[in-house]
Amino acid sequence: MKANAAASDGKEAREPRQAKRDPEGVRRDILSVAMEEFSQNGLSGARIDEIAARTRTSKRMIYYYFGDKEGLYQHVLDEAYGKVRGGESGLELDGLEPVAALDKLCRFTFEHHRRNPDFIRMVMIENIHHGRHMQLSETIRGLNRPAIEALEGVLRRGKESGVFRDGVDPLELHWQISALSFFNVSNAATFAFIFGDGLFTPQGQETLSRHAADMVLRYVLKAEHIGAIEKDGR
Fold first, then answer.
1. What residues have CB less than 8 Å from 124, skipping those under 6 apart?
2. Burial of 114 by CB count in 10 Å (0-12 exposed, 13-18 middle, 19+ buried)?
3. Region at 58 (left for phi over 0; alpha for psi -120 to 50; beta for the rest)
4. Whole-number percent of the chain with pLDDT over 90
5. What is the DSSP letter of 221?
């Protein structure tokens, strides 16, 4: 009996009972790992078993939180868009003069996409599915509306101060900023294979980021104010 008790005590010492995990922490872990799994393997190729193993939870727990595999995928989409929009809201653009605000937004978008390739892959995968899951989301449209409203505010202040020209559509401008930042990640592998990886070094990425912001600014600035960018050595 003593030997058995000692063996039992030794086993318990080697394998301490796992502390009860915070439900919200478990949910965040699942979403983080699911983002990697879906972005790497797509909706059809992603495996719930793999997500469960990596998060030290169970398929049953994942389904408890998110319903099913497609429900988890949809929540990952919501989380991905929420992160980029949350970062934009933290830029406090209203406190900057219009040129600085637009430059900061462009540089943020480029840097966010560069540092979050999983987000880009998720958007690409959802486009393969023709936006079907995004259309079912109750939050994504609302998450993205403030991005256009922020640009509207920057453009309005720029026109009122006589720096920005008339006729710039905020939705179109958002498209342009997104396109410049998106291609840098979505086509990095093929572009580097064909032309070399010079643009994807730290220095190359900094140059691209600066020039992408310059292109946007030159598009919205009145002609007489474009020279100010050149004087800054941009």
1. 186
2. middle
3. beta
4. 73
5. B
pLDDT in tens, 188-221: 999 999 999 999 999 999 999 999 999 999 999 9
Contact in structure between 180 and 216 (CB atoms under 8 Å): yes
Radius of gyration of the chain (CA): 24
Q: Has domain 69-231 been given CATH number 3.40.50.300?
A: no
DSSP letter at 56 equals T
Q: Residue 230 pLDDT > 70, yes or no?
A: no
> How many angstroms separate the CA atoms of 119 and 112, rounded?
9
How far, in Å, are 11, 12, 22, 92 from residue 17 at the CA level? 11, 8, 15, 46
Taking only the tens place, the pLDDT of each residue in 151-162 is 999 999 999 999
The two tokens of residue 194 are 């064909």
CA torsion 217-218-219-224 (nearest 10°) is 110
Which residue is associated with the tokens 């900061």? 104
3-state secondary structure of 71: helix
Are 212 and 229 contacting, i.e. CB atoms less than 8 angstroms apart? no
What are the structure tokens assigned to 159, written together?
A: 């026109």
Render pLDDT for 38-90 as a digit per residue (tens, 0 to 9): 999 999 999 999 999 999 999 999 999 999 999 999 999 999 999 998 898 88
Q: Six-digit token pair at 72?
A: 């988890």
pTM of the model: 0.83
